[in-house]
Amino acid sequence: MDSLIVIKIGGNVIDDPTALKRFLTVFAGLAGPKLLVHGGGKVATQVADKLGIETTMVEGRRITDQPMLDVVTMVYGGLVNKQIVAKLQALDINAIGLTGADAGTVLAKKRPVKDIDYGMVGDIEEVDSGQIQFFLRQSLTPVFAPITYSAAGDLLNTNADTMASAIAVDMVRHNTVTLIYCFEKKGVLKDPTDDNSVINELTPALYADYKAAGAINKGMIPKLDNAFKALENGVSKVIICHADELANAVNQGVGTTLKS
Ligand SMILES: Nc1ncnc2c1ncn2[C@@H]1O[C@H](COP(=O)(O)OP(=O)(O)O)[C@@H](O)[C@H]1O
Ligand SMILES: CC(=O)N[C@@H](CCC(=O)OP(=O)(O)O)C(=O)O
């Protein structure tokens, strides 16, 4: 089986043009088939602000009413996605920008209303990994925006960490998959205020301990839940690392590697 690297790049890096350019240069230089999933939550919040639309996040998920859905569709599916695709083209990577609706790649279902009404937020139902494999075989590099679609034809806002995990898991049918979450810190930290406290190997038991102690919190919790889910479902290797250390993470094991 061919290997495939699925990489997710987070919103804090996307919001910093210099850091994004550095990351994309390293991404472009990685050998072999690869695929990028991007976030952009920070940019969406800034654009919503300018339009007078208030942002509400609950457990790391954006409450997405119709005006907010319009914003995230424009920001993720348009602005951020196309800027990344253009930069990759300039780096000689033939990138193809996609939302989950494009080529029917990621189908979702509107999150049912329980205690909280998230609005137009999608929980992933099905990934068409055969279609993604088809793009890869044409030597195209898919770049996914965190937008999915429903069977009824609605666009849905979907967390980018979840999207990367779901795509990686389904690609296991075709490839030996490595999943790498890149963000602005050096990995999962024992102490979030100390950038030199990287946990080299994280097991579910250690994760539970650090979470209970409050050392792993906020956005890192849904990220790790998605990351462990990928490891449990056939992804060979899952790494969380700094965007600048992507090349070393692939080759030399920097950052945090998840263990089952
Ligand atoms: N133990 C930890 N190690 C590293 N980051 C942590 C930790 N606990 C909480 N965090 C926070 O999690 C954030 C990453 O989650 P999130 O903002 O969702 O990432 P992304 O930008 O990749 O989507 C970091 O910016 C950091 O503030
Ligand atoms: C439903 C939901 O919360 N979707 C996310 C999608 C973007 C994202 O995940 O961006 P980062 O990776 O930069 O956080 C949001 O709108 O913030």
Q: Mind explaining what this structure looks like?
A:
This protein is α/β, with parallel strands linked by helices and 260 residues long. It has one domain: Carbamate kinase. Helix content is 40%, strand content 24%. The protein has nine helices and 14 strands. The protein has helices spanning 11-14, 17-29, 41-50, 66-90, 129-137, 160-171, 204-213, 220-232, 246-252; strands at residues 2-9, 34-38, 57-58, 61-62, 95-98, 106-110, 122-127, 141-144, 147-149, 155-157, 175-183, 201-202, 237-242, 256-258. The strands form four sheets. It has an eight-stranded mixed β-sheet with strand order 5-8-2-1-11-13-14-12, with helices on both faces. Strands 3-4 form a two-stranded antiparallel ribbon. The chain has a two-stranded antiparallel ribbon with strand order 6-7. A hairpin with a 2-residue loop joins β3 (57-58) and β4. α3 crosses α4 (66-90) and α6 (160-171) runs parallel beside α8 (220-232). The protein is globular and about 45 Å long. The mean pLDDT is 97. Bound molecules: adenosine-5'-diphosphate (ADP) and N-acetyl-L-glutamyl 5-phosphate. Adenosine-5'-diphosphate (ADP) is lined by residues 10-12, 39, 60, 183, 185, 188-189, 192, 215-220, 223.
